[in-house]
Histidine kinase
Amino acid sequence: MAKDSKVQSIAETIVADSPETLVESDDQTKVQPKDKSLFNFARNKVRGWSRSTQFVIAATFILGLTMFFVGDLVSERVKSAALQSAAEAGALYMEAFLEPYVQEMNERSEISQESIAALDQMLNTSSLKRHVESMKIWRPDGTVVYSTDKSILRQTFATDEIAGALGGHVVTDLEDLSQDENRFERALNVPLYEIYAPLRDGKSGKIVAVGEFYERADGLEKEIAKVRGQVWRVVGTATLAMLLLLFFIVRRGDAIIQQQQVALRSRVIEQARLHSKNAMLQRRIAKANQEFWKINELTLRRLGADLHDGPAQLLTLILIRLDDLADQLEACAKLPGDREIYESIRGAAQDALREVRDISRGLALPEISELSLREELALVAGRHEQRTGSKVELALGELPGDLPLPLKICIYRFVQESLNNAFMHAGGAGQRIVADYRNRLLSLTVCDSGQGFEVAATPIETDGRGHLGLAGLRYRVESFGGSFTVESELGVGTRVRAQFRR
C-alpha cells in the first residue's frame, strides 16, 4: 500500500507540473506535436493502402519522372538535329550565293558597292525571300560589312557564334535574338533562327568572312513540335504500358502474399490455440501427478500405521505371552528341555517385529513440514545411516529457506530412494548428498563410488527393482516441473541429479 501511494503521489506531481511546462514552452514546441500527428496520420493512411496501390503511386512518380527526363532529352536531341540539318542546308545556300561576293575581301576587307547592290537584289528575289528574312556578312573581327539592316553597317559586335564559325563550324540558334545587332530581326515579329557559316577564299580555302542567314522558323517549329509530340506519345505509351504490366505483376504478387498471410495467420492462431490447449493439458497432468503422489504418500502412511498398529502390536503381544509362558514353565520345571525351541520361536518373533517396524518406519514419512530443507536432508541421511550402518557425507551449500510441503516430500523421497539404490548396488561406498541453490535453480545430487553401469545401454523401465525405483523418481521429479538425470561410469560410480527452477 505504501508503494502504491508513492506511485500515485508521483503521478499527481507530474499532472500538476504539466500545465506550467506547457505554458513555458515556445511556439515551435507547441506546433511540433501537431506536425508529428499530421505526419503519423499520413503515414498510417499510406500504410492502409494495398501494396499494389502503393507501388503504382511510387512507380508512377519515379518512372514518370524518369520518362519525363528521357522525353525531354529526346526532344532536345530532335530539335538539335533539326536545327543542324537546317544549318547545313543554310550553309549550302551561303556557299552558293555569298562566297562569290566575299572573294574581294581577301584583298581589302570590304565589299564593294556593286556587290552590296547585287546582294540586295538577290535577297529580294521571290525564291529566296520565302525562306530568308535577313542576311549579314561579318569580318573576322566582328564588324558587319553587309546587312539587310543598313543601320548597323561597319559596326562591330561581339558574338560567340562568329567565333564558332571562324573555327570552321556551322552554328545555329533558334531562340536567341536579344543582342543589339538583332533589332531589325526582332522588329519583324516572326519566328526566326540564325545560321552562321564560314565563307572561304576560293583559291586558298582560308576563311575570309562569316555569313549569317535569318530564316523563318514557322515550318521548322511545326516539324519540331510534330516530332516532339510523336516522341512524347511513344514515351507516354511505353510508360503507361510498363506501369500497367508492373501493376498487374505486383497486384498478383500482392494477392498471393495476402493469401499466404491469411493462411499463415490462421496457422499461427491454430498453433496458439494448440499451444494453449497443450499447456492446459500439461498443467492438468502435472496437477494429476502431484495429486497422485499425495495420494500415494497418504496410502504409504496408512500402510505404515496399519503395520505398526496391527501386526507389530500382535507380535509384541506374542513376545509378552511367550515370556509369561516361559516363566510359568520354569516355575513348573518343565522348560529346560524345550529351551532351544522357545528361543528359536522368540528370536523369530523379534525378527518379525523388527522388520515390521522397519517397514512401517520406511512407509510412514516423518513430519517434515516444520523442518528446513537443510534439516530435512540431514534427517534423511541420518535415518539411512541408522538403518544401514553406512556413512553418508553431506555437502550443502546455500539453500532456500521455505519450500512447499509437496516439494519437500518429493525431495525426501528422491534422496531416500537414491540412497537405497546406492546402498543396494554400491554397498554404500562413497555415499554423498550435494545440494545448492543458485540463480533460482535448486540442484540436488546423490553420489556413490560403486561399480556404476552403462546408462545408455540400460533402460530405466526394466524389471529390476533399482531401475523401477529410478523410473519412479523420474516421474515424481518431473511431475513437479523438475529435471531428472542419471550419470554413471563403470568403475567410477553413479550420480543421480534432480533440479527444480524456482
